[in-house]
Amino acid sequence: MFTKKLDSNDSNLLFHLEKICFIDSYWSLEQIKSHFLINSGIGYFEQNNNNFLKSTITEVELKGYLLYLENNFELEILRFGVIPEKRRTGIAHLLLEELKKIEKEIFLEVNELNLPAIQLYKKNGFQIIGNRKNYYKEKEDALILKYIPFKKK
């Protein structure tokens, strides 16, 4: 298992994962490619060793990702997904830890009904700083969360 910075070469993998993680609201391949023109992402990969006719074939599979926007002062998480069978295994935490290494404030919006995600963010030091009324398709509010990095002296 390892994390790596994602780029436009990973667009097809991300599109496949988007369709699995966000069945009703996934980004199109064009949106993902457009994201990488000026923005970044981090992916979590696992190696799967499969024996086939006495030889070992090693495959690397993307299991989770986050896409973010970065400027001089802060980051904003735009997309964050982990395949369903790998949720609650620590992948999301690892991805957030990788993003925190950039040492900038991090913002994100999350559906007020997505309690597992809210719990994850709070556990990782995010605080609710506001909300957007009727933000989502079904009129749910979005909570705005912020992470402030610990400044080293």
Kindly describe this structure:
- The chain starts with a strand and ends in a 6-residue tail after the last strand.
- The protein is of the alpha+beta class and 153 residues long.
- Mean pLDDT is 92; it is low at 52-57.
- The protein contains four helices and seven strands; from the N terminus they run βααβββαβαββ.
- The chain has helices at 11-21, 29-38, 91-100, 115-123, and strands at 2-6, 40-52, 55-70, 74-82, 105-111, 127-132, 142-147.
Annotation keywords:
about 150 residues, alpha+beta, seven-stranded mixed beta sheet, about 40% strand, globular
Provide a concise account of the structure shown.
The chain is 26% helix and 41% strand. The chain is an alpha+beta fold. A seven-stranded mixed beta sheet has the order 1-2-3-4-5-7-6, sandwiched between helices.
Instruction: Give the assembly state of these chains.
Output: single chain
Secondary structural class: alpha+beta
- Mean pLDDT metric: 92
Number of helices in the DSSP assignment = 4
Our estimate of the beta-strand percent is 35-45%
Uncertain regions spanning at least 5 consecutive residues? 52-57
Helix content: 25-40%
Which strands sit side by side, in order, in the main sheet?
1-2-3-4-5-7-6
Query: What would you call the shape?
Result: globular
Distance between the termini: 32 Å
Number of strands: 7
Which series of helices and strands comes N to C? Answer: EHHEEEHEHEE
